Amino acid sequence: MTKEGHGLSRRDLLCAGSAAATGLLWAGLPELGARVDAQGGRKPLAIDVHAHLFPERYLDLVQGFGKTDTGTQRDRKAGIAPGEMPARFALMDAARVDMQILSVSPQVPHFEHKGNAVTAAKMANDMLADAAHRWPTRFRFFAALPMPHVDEALKEMERAFGLGAVGVGLSTVVLDRSIADASFIPVYEEMNRRATVLFLHPAGNAIFSKLIADYHLTWMIGAPAEDSVAALHLIQQGIPTKFPNLKIINSHLGGALPVLLKRLDSITTWEYPPMPERPSLALRRMYYDTVDYGDVPALHASIAAFGLDKMVLGSDFPYETGELYTLSANYIRQAGLQPDDTAAILGGNAEKMLRLS
Length: 357
Description:
This protein has about 350 residues and is α/β, with parallel strands linked by helices.
């Protein structure tokens, strides 16, 4: 269970009533310890940090508020309809995955209309929390926030943590604004105060390029491009340095970043001299999930670039399902790593980061 840091934020008094009302709901959930192996030793859980929950009711709501791309999430058996959860658990068992950290990304409740954003965020968090309470050994969740509305986002963050959130899930952009926009600093301050986790997921916007969108490359190329650009926006604004207690997870092994460290360090000296620190150093302050469709060389490149302790298991369920879901965990087991290193990526790093034990 995520425990808050010490000290009061400037919005704590506004949110205290919500925390008191919702905090009791989380109190009954069990803390999760490691499994015990055949020799009686401690075996970390396998924790999938990149897994989606898409109930039809939520997709209907955000579509009614103007989302035009919910077809990408529909009919993937990633909701709570009868039969969907048993099928999900069977898939997790086949892959030897103990737990998923759920999010509604990329259908995050980011709307210009404040009321719509708040309504969608509350529905998302209520549904995510319900799943975590109904199946407490299988799920935790990342809170959805009603961005870009900062005051409302802070209030909903407080409420969601009272419901049991173990972190926050945002998209790599907020509508058409950078994830590192200066107006969002209070949200980063509060996440840092809580020493919590921020999970970033592509928005599926083709990084605003017709050369990507018009050629059916939004998710093939656009998504890892979003991952790369968002991480660099955060670095340019000094977010990883200013907020050292915040653990940021970038999706898809960091996109193109593992093979760009030397280029970034060199070119930033003349293209963007105000860079707060060398990109290679700042990137090593963040975490990276392993979603990459079983690409072992790419996994090794990310480990070499960022460090094994920064890698966490991700599947991208339900887009990786069936044999692909099993592969999402097994390719790490088959990557030629030492057993302790494999266990760290599969769950040990996430268990520590999310403070689940």
